[in-house]
Amino acid sequence: MLLHLSAALERIEALNAYVHGQQLRQFQHDILKTGAFHLVSPFTGDRLECVESRLIAFINDPYHFELPLYAYRFEDRSDIWVMSFQIGLGFPLCALFIEEVGGLYVHRAPAAPNSYKVLKRLWREFKTLNAIPSEEAGLAQPLAMIGHPNFAHYMWNELPALNAALRDRPVETRSLFAPLGPLEGLPRPAAFKPLKQSGPPYFTPVGGEFLDQRTQSSLTRQMPTRTVLRSDKASPVIWVAHREDGRSCENFLDMLAAFDRQARELCQPRYIFDSFSAPDDLDAPWYDPVRDAFESRRRQSETLFQAMSGAVSAPEAVLATTAGLTVMQAMALAREADYYISPIGSIQHKVAWLQPIPGLVHGPSTAMNRHVAQWHGQKSEVALAPTNLPSELIRDTRASAHHPSAERNMDYRITDPEAAAAFALAHLRDVLSL
């Protein structure tokens, strides 16, 4: 019987506490400081020492919320595994598995429902993955693992946490991916292999939920030299992003045409068009399984930019597009913008997370609430909270074919493009004092 389960869960809750604001969880800090961390036995209440760590990741499914997956084994009456995943939440210890009784979620969040089905699938997948031959890490000192292929997670969840860890002590680091290209002080990624470390010191993810100004300044300093576009109030530069790979606005071009027409009665708008950007390390061989898909999205973006250019009355007002640019190059170009109109999500991150630029976001109706806008403003020390397009101007149409798993992943239409354009223009006038 698990007489001390509550004490075991309380210990894991303490290990999930942040050490520096919203950066670097306690178990991550403990590994980097001492090489390991300990649990409380749910059977006896005694202290349990970690005996093994594993890292499992997939390139063919890089955005799956369960991966990369870090697992730590503890020896007790039966083996106990505690698992860290969910990069968007800072890699908490999320699941506790006790061989003889099954599993429990220990970090409750919307992305991690306490679902028996999810637990059963995760445990089945882990036992399969755990059987894959792993390379012995052979560590002589604790190791921080970073490098998620999604640039936003890498920039927001990992790099600030690593910087927080470096405030305490030098940290040995290994990179799995480098979606923003080479950065100061970070090793180049090596070909990924599943890792195993039998006995301390162990490896750990580093995670958090806040992009601080120190990290922002470091990234900005390392960006490519930008092109000076000479913005002025009479001709503001507007960053316009569009996506057709899921959570798509089916008639956004109608809103763009209406906005351009209405804006020309006030000023001479100029545009930078944005869509998909490839990671800066796309030439690395571990992207081979998704290279064709990325190339297809790049071609779709070029077609999309042609359609967007056709929606504005003066095609010469399109100053630039992000066609063919990497993420880092696109973010450098985004610094030229005065205002943005964007779907809510990773595309918005390119323009809005590293600079205090005002903008308007749109998305499925479930994503258009004040809490979501405030959330974005609270997750970056530099960014401004976006303004949402009013939800009454949005009608969800169907579940996204690309992201069908959550309620928020819906394609949608703007019910009145003229009214939506007028709302965006009123907001632009207000924030830019036109």
Question: What key attributes describe this structure?
Answer:
single chain, 434 residues, alpha/beta, 21 strands, eight-stranded mixed beta sheet, 2 domains, Rossmann fold, elongated, 11 helices, six-stranded parallel beta sheet
Care to describe what's here?
- This protein has 434 residues and is of the alpha/beta class.
- The chain folds into 2 domains: 5-219, no CATH class; 229-432, 3-Layer(aba) Sandwich (Rossmann fold), CATH 3.40.50.
- It contains 11 helices and 21 strands.
- It has helices at residues 5-15, 26-34, 116-130, 151-168, 213-221, 252-263, 288-311, 327-334, 346-352, 370-378, 417-432, and strands spanning 18-20, 23-25, 38-40, 47-56, 69-74, 80-84, 93-98, 102-105, 135-136, 143-146, 172-175, 195-198, 203-205, 237-241, 270-274, 318-321, 339-343, 359-362, 387-388, 394-399, 410-414.
- Strands 3, 4, 5, 6, 7, 8, 9 and 12 form an 8-stranded mixed β-sheet that branches. Strands 16-15-14-17-18-19 form a 6-stranded parallel β-sheet, sandwiched between helices. A 3-stranded parallel β-sheet has the order 11-10-13, with helices on one face.
- β5 (69-74) and β6 form a beta hairpin.
- The N and C termini lie far apart (69 Å).
- Mean pLDDT is 87; it is low at 59-66 and 110-114.
